[in-house]
Amino acid sequence: MKKYLIFGLALVVGCSLVIAEEAISSNFVNALKTCSTSYEESGNFTTEGMNVTSTKKILGWENDKCVYQEKISFSGMNTCLTCKLAKSQIDELVSVMAAYEVVQKYSKEDIDTSKLSAVQDNPVVKVWNKYLQDSSVCTMTTTK
After folding, report:
1. Tens digit of pLDDT for each residue in 5-39?
2. In 3D, which of 16, 3, 17 has the Cα closest to residue 50?
3. Do 71 and 55 touch, CB atoms closer than 8 A?
4. CB-CB contact of 80 with 54 (8 Å)
5. Helix, strand or coil, per DSSP, at residue 1
6. What is the spatial distance between Cα 39 and Cα 47, in angstroms, rounded to a whole number?
7. How far apart are CA 106 and CA 114, in angstroms?
8. What are φ and ψ of residue 133, in 5° steps?
């Protein structure tokens, strides 16, 4: 059961990352690339009939790792995701997000976030999920 909960949370986080990527892509990519503490963003979206609120921020460098934090609220659950990313991990994430930004620019397709299954094959979601599911990189705490 815990594995399904983590997978579900990872997809919700992935949705919120894709939405951040779509809405303010260059700002987020550049802030992550430089681990800029001036980056903070909040937003709402709906997926699977749930209203999701997300607040993302970059906390800066800690022991040679960039700390990214996202707080997500949905269905009475509050989740805090904290990722401590090495430079090589940031480079991979930034590379995929920047490439996806170019594809989005020319395809002009809207991202369907109405269902979690609609974003699970998104390249940005896939690369983030790789780290979200690695407890040595990202940790999640959930409260009701």
Report:
1. 444 454 455 545 544 444 446 788 899 999 999 99
2. 16
3. yes
4. no
5. coil
6. 25
7. 22
8. -90, 0
Task: Write down the pTM of the prediction.
Answer: 0.77
What are the φ and ψ backbone dihedral angles of 137, each rounded to 5 degrees? -110, -50
Handedness of CA 51, 18, 124, 127 (dihedral sign): negative
Check if the beta carbon of residue 42 is closer than 8 Å to that of residue 55.
yes
CA 58 – CA 52 distance, rounded (Å): 20
* C-alpha span between 70 and 42 (Å, rounded): 9
Q: What's the angle, vertex CA 13, arms to CA 8 and CA 15, rounded to 5?
A: 95
Both tokens of 100, joined, read 């996806």
Residue 31 CB contacts under 8 Å (≥ 6 apart), including other chains = 38, 39, 58
Pairwise pLDDT comparison (10 vs 73), residue with the higher score = 73
Distance, CA of 136 to CA of 144 (rounded, Å): 24
